[in-house]
Amino acid sequence: MRVTLNQDGVRELLSSSQGPVAREMASLTRQVQNRAKQKVGVDTGRLRSSVTGVVNATGDKVVGTVGSSVQYAGYHHQGTGVYGPRGRPIKARPGRVLVFTPKGASTVVYTKQVQGSKPNPFLLDALREVLVGWTIVENR
């Protein structure tokens, strides 16, 4: 028996923005986006509302991307200070202090250093929950 593949047809199935692969990628991207919005937590709602997903079909690839354009999204996701990638406290510059009002407090705090904030990997957690059973390779 001999099997001959219609390579143009296979390419169309895999890379068309209207094909079944792109439709499935769009569905998965929406699911990850919605789950990430549920997991992000809410302070003002700005970060939650900024989480978006998009699907691009170019060449022989269909890629779904979920993320946020808010400047502090990466800090929220990865953590800061001792909890972040560097693993060190956040320190004021010599001769200065850090000034902030903690969440839920009415008084201002002056300090030389803080521990930082714990990570909330809402995007990665959402991806893992939606793609249960899939192998996820982190590309940092």
Report on this structure.
With 140 residues, the protein is an alpha+beta fold. 35% of the residues lie in helices and 17% in strands. It is built from five helices and six strands, in the order αααββαββββα. It has helices at residues 7-15, 20-39, 46-50, 73-78, 122-130; strands at 52-58, 61-67, 90-91, 98-100, 109-111, 113-114. The protein has a two-stranded antiparallel ribbon with strand order 1-2. Strands 3-6 form a two-stranded antiparallel sheet. Strand 1 (52-58) and strand 2 form a beta hairpin. Helix 2 crosses helix 5. The N and C termini lie far apart (46 Å).
Notable traits:
elongated; alpha+beta; two-stranded antiparallel ribbon
Describe the main β-sheet briefly.
2 strands, antiparallel
Globally, the shape reads: elongated
Enumerate the spans where pLDDT stays under 50 for 5 or more consecutive residues. none
Strand residue percentage: 15-25%
Query: Largest sheet, order of strands side by side?
Result: 1-2
- Discrete helix count: 5
How much helix, percentage-wise, in residues?
25-40%
Q: Whole-Å distance between the termini? A: 46 Å
Total strands: 6
Oligomer: single chain
Order of helices and strands: HHHEEHEEEEH
Q: What value does the Rg take, in angstroms?
A: 21 Å
User: What would the average pLDDT be, to the nearest integer?
Assistant: 90
Helical/strand content category? alpha+beta
